[in-house]
Amino acid sequence: MAIGPYPEALGSTLVPPVKERIWCRLANFLCGCAASDESVATRACIETAPESIWGEMAFYEEVPGKPPMLLASLLSPLGTEGDKSQVGGLVICRYQQGNLVKRITALEKPYFIGFDVIKQRLGIERCAIARSGSYRIRRRGAGSEVILTTNYQALLDPRWLWRPLEKLALHQLHSHILNGMCRIAVETPKLGTATPGCIYREEET
Question: Are 105 and 83 in contact (CB under 8 A)?
């Protein structure tokens, strides 16, 4: 699907955003603060080459299977539309709760894809706003290391309380994506089933 240079060109493909969530409004009223830039990264070891992983690259909204309950309560994915195969391409990510629009900013096949979030309408904008993200693939012997990174602005204080909760949600999101990519990209001939990568958490940058 070809998408014009502005999100408005997406027209009817946008899901009407939900109203601001009551819990988010309350949290901001009680704990709101100036925006704080945060970053969370999660990595996985997958037993296949970067070229194979690149062919199965998936955003959260494209991963088969249901996400964890906590994650689904925040973002219930419906799918994506757009072009992530070239720099400048726009991708609309649709959820039951609203939309994100991403613009691809960097592409180095089969090792890196970066994007900016240019529009967010999810009803949580008083709590957190996504800014950018990336997928980085590094060759490790016969396999690969995949690192997913999300950069966002946090709007709740104290940070010692809210940061661990935000990290938990984002690590769940990353792990769901990575496990989905593992199931697709890595096959076990003897069993005919997918072999998940070894996922572990990485310190924030």
Answer: no
Q: If you average pLDDT over residues 45-54, what whole number do you get?
A: 87
Separation between Cα atoms, residue 93 and residue 85, nearest integer Å? 15
Query: How many contiguous H segments (helices) and E segments (strands) does the chain have?
Result: 4, 10
The predicted model scores a pTM of 0.82
Mean pLDDT confidence for 132-159: 94
What is the domain count for the chain?
1
CATH code at 114? Answer: 3.30.530.20
Looking only at the bridges linking them, the beta strands covering 90-95 and 143-156 are: unpaired
Across residues 39-53, what is the average pLDDT? 90
Domain containing residue 187: 15-202
Residue 9 lies in a domain: no
pLDDT one-digit tens code per residue, 161-203: 999 999 999 999 999 898 888 877 655 443 333 344 555 555 5
Confidence of residue 91 (pLDDT cuts 50, 70, 90): very high
Residue 6 forms part of a structural domain: no
Whether 10 is covered by a domain: the verdict is: no
Residue 81 lies in a domain: yes
